[in-house]
Amino acid sequence: MRIRRVEVQAFGRLENRCSGDAPMGNLVVIEGRNEAGKSTLFEFLSSMLYGLYPTALDRHPYAPWTGAEMGGTAWIGLGEEEVAVTRRLLSSPIGTLTREGRVESIRNDTLDFVDHVPRKVFREVFALSLAELAGLDDAGWEAVEDRILGRLGATDLRPAREVAAELENEARSLWRPDRRGSPKVRLLDEEIRAVSARRPIARGRAEERRAATDRLNELERLLESARSTRADEQRRLERLRQLVPLRRERTAIRRLRERAGDPARLSGLPADPVAELARRRERVVEAEAAVAAARDEIAGLNVDVDAFTMTHRVLLEREPEIDALRARTAGAEPRRIRLAAIEQEIRGLDRRLDDEADRLTWRGSQDPTAVASIPAAPLAEAWTRWTAARRELAEGAPAPPPAPPGSPALRRLGVAALGLALSVLLVAVVALAGAPALADLPPLAAGALGAFAIAVAAGAGALLQIDRRTRRAARRAHTAASEHLARRREAEEVARLVLESLLTQAGLELDPALEDLPERVRRCRQWVRDRTERHLEAESLRHELAALDRDADAFDEIAESEVGPAALGNLLQERLREARDRSIAARKAESRIAHLDTVVSDAEARLAAAREGLDTVLERLRPFDPDPDTAAEEAARALEHAREADSREERLRAELPDLQVLEQEIDRAEAAGEPWLTDPDPVAALQAAVDRRTDTIEGWLAEGTALQERIAANRDAETLDELEGELARLRDERARLRREHDRLWVLSQLVDDADRKVRELHQPEILRLAGEHLVPLTEGRYDRLEVADDRRRSLQVSGPAAPEPLEVASPLSTGTREQIYLALRMALVRHLDEGGTRLPLFLDEILVNWDPHRRDRGLDLIEVMARERQVFLFTCHPKMVELMVARGASHWRLGPA
């Protein structure tokens, strides 16, 4: 078995504590500081298995400190099966066992799968604390050996060898064959010799008493004769004292019978006719009321039976489907919330896509989802190339070559100078030609003008030549720059065409103004991808919720209400709880109705019997008076007279056993006319004669008293008979003590033999298992435990470290003795529940004082034990918790509630 989960409602200091949702494993470490409730938890688990004791809450040592209702639940695994045990203690203990959905009442009984180990043995053997290990000193090992090997862990039994020793010592205190000590038989022999020495003195006193006794006997004979005579007179006196009052009583009885009337009409009347008549009437009324009450209760119970309708039956039959639906509806609301959140996310993604699409340039109608078709990596690469080409085109294109400094002015100056030279030259030529207009110009001046014109023309030609060379150099530079620009433009065009071909797939146009176009496209692609994923998830959720709605619709008829699935689960749960309550109420009502049918039958039978009895009483009272009440009173008076007469006769018969003889004597005396019948006081005359006889007797009695005083003077002294009786008593006591000695000696041998047989039956297996545990604990230093074959039966250990057996009590170290004790306790636990359910083992701080090396060996043994049974280790040390958790232990911390 395995305790999987624990819920403590209230138990001692623990309240509202739970081991958690995860089931506990075979190895469990319970962490809690001192006074945290570790011992209380062990008591709680023991009570879950064996019941709550004491069964009165006010006397229970673990009554809740807060005054809450005491109880809790433990879920226990039995192979593949799990059962839930719930116990509570109110005015009396209540317990239930839930198994495969069925709830059984177990009251306060022990669970059937743990009853092979008694409750007391479980508490004393299956729980090991630090206090037990701490008490293992040399003087205590004999008790340890007796407890584990002799009493199999029980503490309420005394060791057999102690009992045998006490019986033997008690036998020796009665008698022993040697002369040692002072046994009781030897003291009795001395007392017998002392009594025998007092016999001669007692014999003399006996002779003196004999003489006084002879005279006393003579007086007794005289007294006997006088007393006989007085007795005859007293008998006559007593006879008259009987006959005279008896005669008067007979007369009174005769008058009473005359008043009672004919005895025939009194026959069959009840003792108290008035009370009997009232009682019969009351019985009729009570029976009628009982019949009516039972029928009314049956009518009320039928309401409970009818309240359990077919709908309730269907609900109970479909309880597994309802539980499944509730489990699904419990998760429906989170799904609906998730669906709403997804739809909100989709709307947000749509808005983002629309906003982003508005910022892009489209060839036709915009379709943001088409952006997802653009491959991200090629787009980023094409965009990078295009932007680089544009940047190179913008930054690296050569400007047209500038004109040389002053070149336009020089060209204009040369042209102007050339024009001037031609003009001056023309004037000089005209003047030299004798033109009338220039006739006044001297020829020298005209020649000078001609020379001047030629000089100016030469200068103008030089200027124009310089201008031509400059313009040729500028044309060559401009051509080179144009060719470089053409190549940049071609690269930009190619990059732009590649980029446009990618954008055209989604219906986009290239907008140079959008410098973050790839990032925008990437965001749109991610949003489209997210939107698609959300749509798929939303569709899956809608499908699940639609399926749940369809399944929930199937329960609308039995739910008798059209509500949503979430509310339907709760409504069906309420309806199912109502169906269970009505089912229980109907079963109880049907059981009660079956009982009440019997009650009605019995009540109707009682009613018929009561009516018959009433009719019988009325019939018997009718001779006294037509009115029943008056007849009852008349009958009561007649019965009273008859009873008084009978009582007086009965009293006479009781007081006078020879009444018939006395009555016959009175009849004879009346027939004979004896004198005492007419004597006014015959008793007084006879009493005077008796008094005189008494005076004589008293004189003789005085003499006898004097003799008795003389005899009594020696009465306190020992008599021979007393001594003989004392001797006989002492001899009988001596014989009894010898027999008691023999009995005690036999008993000591029987107890010793029985102890040996019990040890032979159980010890070999316990010692073998303990030796197996001792090997890992001591790392093979010790591997065998045995009991010495002597009266002490001391426990011995051996192994490679001790070729010769050593007594466990000494000289082994405390740590080694603690290891041996732990091995023995583990072996005893395995031996006690062998063949039955393996019960859990509880260990409280048993390794806290061990050094790390020994502690690891102890933890190894505990881990091995946990493979076949559940082991709970209680500790307040975090380091121990870490070590246990590292070995796979479940962890439960008993912290503040």
From TrEMBL:
Keywords: Coiled coil, Membrane, Transmembrane, Transmembrane helix. SUPFAM superfamilies: P-loop containing nucleoside triphosphate hydrolases. Residues 1-194 form the YhaN AAA domain. The lineage of its organism: Bacteria, Pseudomonadati, Gemmatimonadota, Longimicrobiia, Gaopeijiales. This is AAA family ATPase. It comes from the Bacteria. Residues 209-243, 277-304, 713-740 form a coiled coil. InterPro entries: P-loop_NTPase, YhaN_AAA. The chain crosses the membrane at residues 415-438, 444-466.
